[in-house]
Amino acid sequence: MNALAIGALVATISIGIATGAGYRWGHHDAELVAQKAQLTAQKSQMENVNRAIRQANERAAEDAEILRASEQVRVIEQTRTIIRVKEAARHVAENPDLYARRLDACGVCLARSAAAGTDPSACACGSDGAPATATRAGQRH
What we know:
Elements: H1 3-94, H2 96-99, H3 105-116
Region (Disordered): 121-141
């Protein structure tokens, strides 16, 4: 072989080695960049998940506080209701004569008139205190 052919062969082999090495280095660099981007994305996702968990815990704490306060109000109101019912029952037991009577329409009218301080003659009661039996035109009997 002549020197020119050997030089061309050496140049071709050198170019092939350089191209192969450049390809491998480029491929390696690209893998590193891709891995770095993947790690960055995973960190971002983890931060988003952690933030979501933190917000969910905060809202759960707020909800628990609201439920606790609501339960306290319910217990207080239930206790007050029980006390009022017991007081009313005791009052009725101590004053049976007040609650054994029932008023008819005339008695209700007279009681309202007395409570309001108006003239009881406006009530449609008969002379004996019974409701008047006369009906107005158009009313049912």
